[in-house]
Amino acid sequence: MRNIFLVLILLFLFVNSAFAGTVFSGQNTEVLIENSFARESIPGTSISSAYMTISNLSAKDLRLISASSTVSDRIEIHEHTMANGLMRMRQRDHVDISAKDSMLFQPSGFHLMIFDLKQPLKAKENIIITLHFDDQPNIDVNYIIKGLKQKKHHHH
Ligand SMILES: [Cu+2]
Prior knowledge:
Largest sheet: 11 strands, mixed
CATH architecture: Sandwich
Shape: globular
Number of strands: 11
Helix content: 10-25%
Bound molecules: copper (II) ion
Radius of gyration: 17 Å
Strand content: over 45%
Distance between the termini: 61 Å
Number of domains: 1
CATH superfamily: PCu(A)C copper chaperone
């Protein structure tokens, strides 16, 4: 009886955290995408950026080569770098994720830059971005749109 109770608690915690924290976003057998979100677009602009964690579950290196979506015909892989105390953004051809490793796409590092949005992204909506890899099937990833509030914007 006690064990059943414990299992129920664990189940509750698991389900709860699955819905609250880590958001299931997209997966195949070798690649797992978690915690994906994009920024609400700044009024008057047609750009946004998208973030996620990509985990390479396979035994060989993984290469992200591009991203595409119906919301925009132009999504680029970008990286923020510090140069002489200045934050710079540069486009990258690809991002490599080592075997059994994860890569965090976050506001101060790698991100997907979305240009030429066909319509503004609004908080709490969702968009699908398809990630393309050189040696793995594409993955359709669900990105929740987060409001602008806290983070400073980045401009091009
Ligand atoms: Cu960028």
